[in-house]
Design goal:
With 686 residues, the chain is α+β, with helices and mostly antiparallel strands. It contains 25 helices and nine strands. Strands 2-6-5-7-9-8 form a six-stranded mixed β-sheet. Strands 1-4-3 form a three-stranded antiparallel β-sheet. Strand 5, helix 24 (586-599) and strand 6 (604-607) form a beta-alpha-beta unit.
Amino acid sequence: MIRLSPGHLLARVTALPVLALAAWLLVTFPLLLAGQFTPIVALITAGPVVVAAIAFLPRWVPAPRPPGGDDAKDSWWPLIAIVVIVVAFALVEIAYHSEQIVVRRDAASYSQFTTWIAQHGSLPIPQQRDLIAGDLTGLSYDSPAFYQVGDVIWPQFLSGAPLILSVGYWINGVPGMLVTAPLLGALGVLTFAGLAARLLGARWAVLATLVLAVCLPQQWVSRSTYSEPAAQILLLGALLLAYDALARRPDRRQPTLWQSWNTTHLLALAAGLAFGLGLVARIDALRDILPVVAFIGLLLLARRGQALPMLAGLLLGAGYGFVAGFWLSQPYMEHLSGSLQPLLLISAVAVVAVGVATAVLWRRGIPRVDRSRWLPTAVAVVAVVAMAGFALRPLIYVQHGHADELTAYYIGQVQEIEGVPIDPSRTYEEMTLYWVGWYLGLATVLFASIGVALLLRRVMLRRDTEWVLPLLVFTWTVATTLARPAITPDHPWASRRLVVLVLPAFILLAVWFLAWFTRRLRSGPTASPTWFTAPLMSVAALILLVPTALTASGVMSYRMDVGSVAATEQLCDEMPPDASALILDGATSAKFMQVIRGMCGVPTAHVKQPDSPVLDRAISEIHQRGRRAVLVADRAEKLTPHLPAGVDPAHPFNVRTEKDPSTLMKPPQGPWIFDTDVWVAVVPQP
């Protein structure tokens, strides 16, 4: 039996989350397309693939090469510390997990998406208008995040996260699904720890992991059923696998591009697949993986055998993503067309440019930019200037122009509550670097800015080459996200844009700078003694951690939407087995249309004008079909005019609890009130 070193064991363990998720999505997504995404079929088909992936592929993960000799004495404490951090993160997030199932924002939309496919195993969602009132004019079947197309309903988002969260639903229903989200967040932290251990060394990875686990956006997004944790695992895990695939030095005695496949090629295939499958979780991952295309071009020029399998995996995974978007989420893609079409055009141009550049440079190989006296330094200077530009941007101009009037109206409300100048059209995009500073502290931003400049210069000089792909991905994603986050700018909502890659990038680069600075202090003829450098670095670590922890305290005092699950069960209990529901007001329709349809299993429609003859006609049509009409509204007074004497509405959904706040000019501190009511009444048959 081979005994693994602590570092090698850490490398293997941290590769497990991305391998498991990639294997699961690889098999279950076609099952959903075929309408066969059921527990039994998924267990029989995807189960063995997941087991094989986590049982065999980690064996091919090479022992890490510690950067700078930091882990020369390979010890167990970093591995133990990282496991403790991840487990503690999971326990805290489970304790604080939300119950966002009432559709107000994306978390509940994902919950309803998950509930439907976990129960039915297929898309689209039927409107079941034949069980309500047929094609009666005046009824609608759509709601926010659920588009009415013909006689079916298509959910808004991509299916990656719901396919994963369905496992929790199958195990323990809605509570199991809601607890799966914190576990995904913890696996995201573990994956980040693995990437940090490879790039920084295991000891410095402990600090990086702790900073990510403490920061508010990572905690907040892991408490609800968002897609970011799944995307984080796939994209950070892909960087991790790519590092492992390229860790072994190529044999320079012969070209390796067409060499027969070995374990490094399989790891490269897995890395490319994970990059591409990021699109199944989030369509904006298309922007994040563009640098991977350029990196594959560099691998081809270097005659590295991993180039072709990584390209094959990327194409396969991206193919899944495009099918997920343009087949299962076509209305959502149309909604995003204003920003998606330019991104598709940029992607096409980038792919063509990389192909042309690779062909032109094929004989010459990778350009020797390290021979230039000025270019590496110039690139470093550009990085510093860019960060300074992001810092100065709020002083230069204020960005205006939302995608829709509803967003502007909401921003105006938040501005009034927060007591800032009323300017509903303001997008706050110019403040994105300040957002990072809120959540990680100004020291982290400063250290990361210095770190990226130093690293870019070193990579241009062909040092620290293991950073080439991470730097390509991180610098591109950070720059494009900070330039245009494209999200409603209230917090903690807007912090979602930072979770997948931006915050991990800043943390990795800041901790790398500390590690580099420590090595510089301890080396050379004027090396500083340990008694001096150790306290200095401890203070630097506290400078990273303390501001991060203080900001995170804003989400540590509440759970979101608690009581919604129990209230929804009561709501469903009020529905007769042969019920067809008619919602009489727009607010209730927006929040509860898919809740009643999906969780209660009741055909549901919204009566746009309940005071018109349409309502009486709809009730009559339902009764003629041998079903029972159930009226739904947010107040009893909206129901009683349409009920015969002696029929009183019931009040099954009556929740007074806490929800996320919304802030614009400061990080969130403490919750707002979640106050929601649903009244129902069964109309007796005449």
